[in-house]
Structure formats: C-alpha cells, structure tokens
Amino acid sequence: MSTNRAAKSGFAAEAQRKINSKYSDELAAECLEWIKEVTGEPINTSGDMDNFYEVLKDGVMLLKLINSLEPGKVKKVNESKMAFKCMENISAFLEVAKAFGVPVQETFQTVDLWERQNLNSVVICLQSLGRKAQNFGKPSIGPKEAEKNVRNFSDEQLKAGQNVISLQYGSNKGATQSGINFGNTRHM
C-alpha cells in the first residue's frame, strides 16, 4: 500500500484481496521484460507486485515506452515525483495507448496504478499494448492479433443461401400447444 493511505479494513480489504488475487507475477514479469527490451532501459524485471509498482508508478517508464514505439509521440515527460505530475504521466500514457488501438475495456484508471488499487488491470493494458507493438516494427508480447478475414460472396451464392432452412431454427414437426397450461385453469 502507499504510505499516504490508511490500510483498508472490512469489505474494502476483502475486495482489495480479491483484486490482488488476479494479479500474475509471470505476466507482470513478461510485461517488464518487454518494456526493457523495447526501451533499452535497465529496469528490474521481477514480476512481484512491489517491484512492478515501483518501476511504473510515476509513469515515466510508460512514457519512455510510448516514445520508443513512436518517437516524439509524447512531448512532455514529467520527471518530477510530485503526485499530480506522476498522475499526468499515467494519464498521458493511457490516452496514447487508446490512440494506438488498445480497447477501452483493456485500459486502466490512473488510480489503479498510482494508488496501487488494481495492478492486474495495468498488466492487461500493457499486454494489449504489447500485441500492438508489431505495428511499430517492435517486438510484441502475448498472442498474435487476429487479422481481418473478409469474404466476398457473389449474388448467386447469396440467393442460394436464402433458400436453405437452417437447423438452428429447429423443427416444428408435430408441435402443438395441447397440454400446455400456465397457472390455474379458468373456471366458468
């Protein structure tokens, strides 16, 4: 936990434990090794939560990563350790990650990293960005992204498809409504 926050208790502590249980040291280490490879920075690539947080918390390494993928993409990297400057760095990273094609549901909130609330979502975001790295001629991590598989059918093929009754619709042979009664019968 950050030193400027009180320890959570009760439901909040239980919720935090549940969030932390999803965190994977192996995936975090893979992300840090990828960042080290792309940026050339000498960082500790241990995937434990404490190291992962310490390496990324001020957002400087995240912005160096972005500028390694596309030089000059982020003009201002705040080297200051003041909270709002660090949070500006993290926020700038998130904006560029979305612009690079990371889906919104795979990004994280600034406080997830800065206040160490959900480091797993940071790992997910970096994994997603890592899949996009091949678009910039850099090494990528995680599974290869799927490519479009566009199919072009002729009008004749489309018309032939309209005459086929799919078995997904099922069959209504022998179907009746006899024997179906919902609730109490009506007495007259």
Automatic annotation (TrEMBL):
<dbReference type="Pfam" id="PF00307">
    <property type="entry name" value="CH"/>
</dbReference>
<dbReference type="InterPro" id="IPR000557">
    <property type="entry name" value="Calponin_repeat"/>
</dbReference>
<dbReference type="GO" id="GO:0051015">
    <property type="term" value="F:actin filament binding"/>
</dbReference>
<protein>
    <recommendedName>
        <fullName>Transgelin</fullName>
    </recommendedName>
</protein>
<dbReference type="InterPro" id="IPR050606">
    <property type="entry name" value="Calponin-like"/>
</dbReference>
<dbReference type="Pfam" id="PF00402">
    <property type="entry name" value="Calponin"/>
</dbReference>
<dbReference type="GO" id="GO:0015629">
    <property type="term" value="C:actin cytoskeleton"/>
</dbReference>
<comment type="similarity">
    <text>Belongs to the calponin family.</text>
</comment>
<dbReference type="GO" id="GO:0007015">
    <property type="term" value="P:actin filament organization"/>
</dbReference>
<dbReference type="InterPro" id="IPR036872">
    <property type="entry name" value="CH_dom_sf"/>
</dbReference>
<feature type="domain" description="Calponin-homology (CH)">
    <location>
        <begin position="25"/>
        <end position="134"/>
    </location>
</feature>
<dbReference type="InterPro" id="IPR001715">
    <property type="entry name" value="CH_dom"/>
</dbReference>
<dbReference type="InterPro" id="IPR003096">
    <property type="entry name" value="SM22_calponin"/>
</dbReference>
